[in-house]
Specification:
Distance between the termini: 22 Å
Strand content: over 45%
Order of helices and strands: EEEEEEEEEEEEEEEEEEEEEEEEEEEEEE
Oligomer: single chain
Low-confidence stretches: 1-20
Radius of gyration: 20 Å
Structural class: mainly beta
Length: 391
């Protein structure tokens, strides 16, 4: 089923300005590829079968699945890993063979912050000859309340799996010890022992993080959003430093979602605040970040991306929410900067009440040079590709 959306929404929060270029009107064609999603906790994009085309991977409640690019047929690669739900997925080609390596976080039991048997799990999946079948599972040590994970490049051709729990050990109501953020170093034989490095334990509650290139380096850095603000962590000389995080000055609000973007020569972070919050904001990075509020009308904002979907040479922000707003709707919005400095933005509606966004990602699925939006819905139980038809 296909639907087209292209709607500009006036808002007192969004500061409108005459565009210094004439950006195309955003136009997206919605295609539902699965209407039986249980929750849709986490999405990833990567080539699963080695044909050079990006596929969609989804961590759903009880199953880890992928959808083959083209016919979007659904395949289960792991199921019933733990008693509690799967919660996150990381997929990336870390070996250079053209196929993604996949890791999973499961046993989602956020109310239990001490017992590692009852809360949290980390698994590495080993691909069989036929990637449409079930994959072998390697279970790794973990912290309680494992919540988010990504593959991060430490140096050219060298990667680690960074895993971020929701809570610190023993936390009650978000208060207590710091969240133990770990990097897992893959051994040559994945069945062997994985070295772990404690990257940070200074945030007592986190929710999400982003991975971005490190300027002038093959390594990547990460930005982690938490209750106390944002921490930045970078490898040095191809290695992680124990407890090497640095707090970004000038961002002291509780952060739920966080993504990195660029506006020409200006870097920015976009956030949803607070955790499961109603506000979408942009922080222009410099000596002291400048905050611009884009929207305060979301209800349980839970999905966020920054990418140049319109070919403007500067990134836009995509945000989705999973509970009904004051108009009784869920959906996805696109925020477009209308000047080079990122001080003025325009808001567009991408999805009008068909997507209760639990997660979303942006990727060019058909190779036409225009990134598409892929979103998984919690209350709406769906997975939708929003094909980018903007001209």
């Amino acid at each position: 089923m296909y639907h087209f959306f292209s709607t500009i929404i006036p808002s007192a929060i969004v500061l409108l300005a005459a565009a210094y270029t004439d950006p195309p009107v955003p136009l997206f064609e919605a295609q539902t590829i699965d209407d039986q999603v249980s929750i849709g906790y986490g999405l990833a994009i990567g080539d699963v079968n080695g044909n050079g085309r990006p596929d969609i991977l989804l961590a759903d409640k009880d199953e880890i699945v992928w959808y083959r690019n083209g016919d979007w047929q659904r395949f289960v690669i792991a199921k019933n890993l733990t008693v509690y739900d799967n919660v996150c997925i990381a997929a990336r080609d870390i070996t250079g063979d053209g196929q993604v390596e996949v890791a999973i976080g499961a046993q989602w039991n956020p109310g239990e912050t001490s017992d590692t048997e009852e809360s949290g799990s980390v698994h590495y999946l080993i691909r069989p000859d036929d990637p449409t079948g079930l994959w072998d599972v390697v279970t790794l040590p973990h912290e309680p309340t494992v919540h988010r994970m990504r593959w991060v490049q430490m140096a050219e051709g060298r990667y680690s799996l960074v895993v971020v729990p929701l809570h610190g050990r023993g936390n009650v109501d978000g208060e207590g010890d710091g969240v133990r953020i770990l990097a897992y170093i893959p051994p040559e034989n994945p069945h062997g022992s994985w070295e772990t490095i404690l990257l940070d334990d200074s945030l007592n509650m986190t929710h999400n993080f982003d991975v971005v290139p490190k300027e002038g380096d093959s390594a990547e850095r990460i930005y982690i959003g938490g209750r106390q603000g944002v921490n930045e962590i970078s490898p040095y000389g191809g290695e992680w430093r124990e407890n090497g995080a640095e707090r970004l000055r000038g961002i002291d609000r509780g952060i739920g979602e966080i993504r990195y973007g660029r506006l020409g020569s200006v870097d920015f972070l976009t956030t949803i605040e607070p955790m499961h919050g109603n506000e979408v904001a942009v922080y222009l990075l410099g000596d002291r970040p400048e905050r611009y509020l884009l929207d305060d009308g979301l209800n349980q904002g839970h999905a966020l991306a920054a990418s140049d979907l319109l070919g403007l040479g500067r990134d836009q922000v995509v945000a989705g929410w999973r509970s009904r707003d004051v108009e009784g709707k869920v959906g996805i919005k696109l925020y477009v900067p209308t000047n080079e400095t990122g001080t003025h933005w325009e808001e567009h509606l991408i999805d009008d009440n068909t997507m209760a966004a639990e997660d979303l990602v942006v990727a060019d699925l058909n190779g036409n040079g225009r990134p598409d939006i892929i979103a998984a819905g919690r209350a709406t139980n769906n997975l939708i590709i929003y094909w980018n038809r903007s001209e």
